Amino acid sequence: MTSLLSRLAFRFARPILRLHFWLYSRNVDRAFFPEDEPEGVVGGPDPERILFVGDIAVAGYGVLRHGMSAASYTAAAIGQRTGRGVTWSTLTAFDLTAHRVATLPCHDTYDFSRVVFMIGIPDVLLATDAGAWGRDLRTVFARARESFGPDTQIVFAGIPPMHEFQPIPRLARLLIKERIDQLNATAMAVLEEDRSDAGSVFVVTPDWREGHAYVQESFSWKKLHHLWGTTIGSAAAGSSRSPVGGAPIAA
């Protein structure tokens, strides 16, 4: 009975979530993104290469320059922790789902030492089933290691609480939060299966609030990119060559 109720609830939630995917798409069309040329370099000796795969956070949603994006802040934090230089590349699209990443052609091999995945928002709003999400993530992570080498670290940034970023109806807020929690729990479980010496890490979303208040009145995307990027970078550099071990990295 519980399973039946769960399936019925999911069928009810799907059109509501897809409506919010349409609203999300409209917001992306109207938002601004960096227009300058990305540098993709943090100076330093013996530079490592990083690949960022993700949706609007990797693309720099809401900031004026690439240097203000979560990817840039992540690379800077890794360089600061390791004392090495960093070069990075990005693969991004506003509708980039785990399934789409899993089916992208990858004919060449590269020497990326880390791959940072910042995906999940489209999967939440398109009501991707948790089982399908988990299967796609296993494929994505396996292909990353096959293409970039067995020593490549897998870093997965938890899906952020996007339902907190702007006012939305209470029912939609609850449905989105539930999907985020389910997909994040699945991602953590998939990463815990990894026993590679390269290490995998799930990075818990940091607290976006100031004290007990949301930053809604003075919402700063630059601040959020900085907080998210530095959290991811510190967790990645602090977890190198360490298996996930069951416990997520806290912000």
Q: What do you see in this structure?
A:
The chain is an alpha/beta fold and 251 residues long. It has one domain: 3-Layer(aba) Sandwich (Rossmann fold). It is 47% helix and 12% strand. It has 8 helices and 6 strands, in the order αββααβαβααβαβα. It has helices at residues 2-30, 56-59, 70-82, 98-103, 121-125, 130-148, 170-192, 221-238; strands at residues 41-42, 48-54, 86-92, 114-118, 153-157, 200-203. Strands 1-3-2-4-5-6 form a 6-stranded mixed beta sheet, sandwiched between helices. α7 (170-192) links the parallel β5 (153-157) and β6 (200-203). α3 runs parallel beside α8 and α6 (130-148) packs across α7 (170-192). The chain is globular and about 50 Å long. The relative contact order is 0.16. Mean pLDDT is 82; it is low at 211-216 and 241-251.
Major beta sheet, specifics? Answer: 6 strands, mixed
- This entry's quaternary arrangement is single chain
Bulk shape: globular
Cα-to-Cα separation, first versus last residue:
38 Å
**Count of beta strands:** 6
H/E series, N to C?
A: HEEHHEHEHHEHEH
In total, how many domains does the architecture comprise?
A: 1
CATH class: Alpha Beta
- CATH architecture descriptor text: 3-Layer(aba) Sandwich
Provide the CATH topology. Rossmann fold
**What is the helix content?**
40-55%
